[in-house]
Amino acid sequence: MTLFASVNSPDFIEFVEKGVAIEELEKRLRPAKYDNKQHEKDVREHAGYANFSREGFIGNDEKLLDTIYKDCKTLESYGVKHHEIAAALNRLISINSEEVKKIFESRNSLSYKLLPKFVRKRLGMRDEIGDSHSCESILNDGYNYKLSSLFTFGEQNCPWGCNSYGQNAGVIYHGPLTKDQKTEIMFAQMGGIDAHEDSINEAFAGVDDDFVLSVKRIKKARNARQEPYYAPITHLLPHLIEVHYFFEGTGSPYRADPTFLIKSLKLR
């Protein structure tokens, strides 16, 4: 990997843009401002781009060039190439794809018929019901990969307009985990716990007060955390890393920290 001269160098900007101006890209990558009932307003806020991520690929004030350049410097310090991380993630997702089928064909999992048709087709799933299967695998040195049992009813497109898209694949985490950390990881596959805080308070206040309080504990621990202990993995992530050098922004709940990935995938 040849590191670009600076974050403002023309060749770096051209590489990041890939035909889409930075200003427009950043609008596409920002979180939604409105609720689902005001989708058209959000489309306008995202420069007319309808396939935006409600939780965003970057934070509200985050600069795309700064984020990608900083991550490039991180990879350079480890002597790791972007395509190496992407290839390792693709292998991880591919190896575990059969297990995903088994999870959803299990008697103890979500009904096959409840899954969107495109998910069933993508997974090549059967109608038969099988036995229950484990949904976690050990990677190395305390790192584990937890398969996703949560699918959204739609797929996320590449915001650059590439013909790439994906669903939740799972979460890499460093354990053992506390009860609150298990909760945080679960919500990490659903857009982060912040996106669900109001509905949790409304549904569980007076019913499960510890669950309500866990949200506050999780947010407090997150704000004090120096290093991540998990990385959400999607089928789109390897493409974003290999082609766009993009691990998502620090303001996104789907951020996959490059240092964490390098260590968990044992690339150095």
Describe the structure.
The protein has 268 residues and is an alpha+beta fold. It has one domain (10-175, 229-264). It has helices at 10-17, 22-29, 39-45, 64-78, 82-95, 97-104, 117-123, 179-188, 197-204, 209-224, 237-244, 258-264, and strands at 136-140, 143-147, 156-157, 165-166, 168-174, 230-234. The strands form two sheets. It has a four-stranded antiparallel sheet with strand order 1-2-5-6, covered by helices on one side. Strands 3-4 form a two-stranded antiparallel sheet. A hairpin with a 7-residue loop joins β3 (156-157) and β4. The longest helix is centred in the last third of the chain and has 16 residues, at 209-224. It is globular. The two termini are 15 Å apart. The model is unreliable at 107-113 and 122-134 (pLDDT under 50).
Overall pLDDT confidence: 85
Radius of gyration: 19 Å
Low-confidence stretches: 107-113, 122-134
* Largest sheet, spatial ordering of strands: 1-2-5-6
Order of helices and strands: HHHHHHHEEEEEHHHEHH
Through-space gap between termini: 15 Å
| Whole-number count of domains | 1
**For the report, how would you describe the main beta sheet?**
4 strands, antiparallel
Strand content: 5-15%
Number of helices: 12
Give me a quick take on this structure.
This protein is α+β, with helices and mostly antiparallel strands and 268 residues long.
List the helices and strands and how they pair.
Layout: H1 10-17, H2 22-29, H3 39-45, H4 64-78, H5 82-95, H6 97-104, H7 117-123, E1 136-140, E2 143-147, E3 156-157, E4 165-166, E5 168-174, H8 179-188, H9 197-204, H10 209-224, E6 230-234, H11 237-244, H12 258-264
Antiparallel strand pairs: 1-2, 2-5, 3-4, 5-6
Helix pairs in contact: 5-11, 8-10, 9-10
